[in-house]
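Reply to dn_fold:

You asked what the input looked like. This is it:
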Amino acid sequence: MSPRPDSRDVPLLDVRDLTVEYATAKGSALAVDKVSFTLRRGEFLGIVGESGCGKSTLLFGIAQLLSPPAGITGGSVEFKGRNLVTMTEKQLNTVRWSELSVVMQSAMNALNPVTTIGAQFRDVLRAHSYDTDINARSREVMELVGVDPVHLGSYPHQLSGGMRQRAMIAMALLFTPDLIIMDEPTSALDVVAQRSLMVQIKQLQRELGFAIIFVTHDMSLVSHFSDRLIVMYGGQIAELGDTRTVFDTPRHPYSRGLLDAFPSIRGPRVPLLGIPGSPPDLAELPTGCRFAARCPQAMPSCTEVEPALYDVDQVLVRCLLHAPDRVGSKETPV
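and this is what came back:
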């Protein structure tokens, strides 16, 4: 009889070939195309990419929060060994908040504007039959995120942007979940508030041990706080690996383009470079590599052959430059 696997070795989250499509006037738009990855307990996974590359749709697919015209058309999302895709809404409601929480992009829109913060906390706790001291737990999580519990009596508009975002994170922590999904929680904050909030999130993660999936446009945030990084483009994973490795030696031309467009406070002064063109129309995807039309290293075959994810020194890269049968190829860029 084989020994039981150590629970620490079993992924907290296992996403396999997840596919999400939108029904549009032009037909089906493939917003997330067979995305696969795992997430360990206590890990911080960053997801970056341009607007329209599928980041937020991926998060909503994982949390099963998609609504028409979007829908999952393939793949699975196993969370703690249970496939969320096949769960009923009633079953999902027992998992959300208690085991898996979501922090939305705009706290002002996510919070109910006509109800106090404390009343919204009570609604969440009562929905999950929390019978102990609700007021004490509400005060406790507010203190965890560095907000005076007196603001439980405040309405969202009475709080600053940073405090609203902290209140959302406090709500996500009410049941100390194993996974918190964050969709650009710092996008509406100034750089000082961003840094303060991220330091707070990282500290809470170390103390409580939850895992994080964090979507952002800000490369500096993931460079400092994430353990692993997914770079998305055209609904697919373009590169996936250890954050430091991806930043130090980006293998995909798109990853290099994103980093070249990102200013650094260290090293010599260099001009910032943009990525020409725009992301592909997800309803009319090109053949071959989806980045080929914008890629400075594109070869003739890039418009014909769709690249797989190739393992390059423990980093997954979707680029023909790293295909085993093409490494060292004499094919010249177009």
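Residues 23 and 69 are 5 Å apart (CA to CA).
Hope that clears it up.
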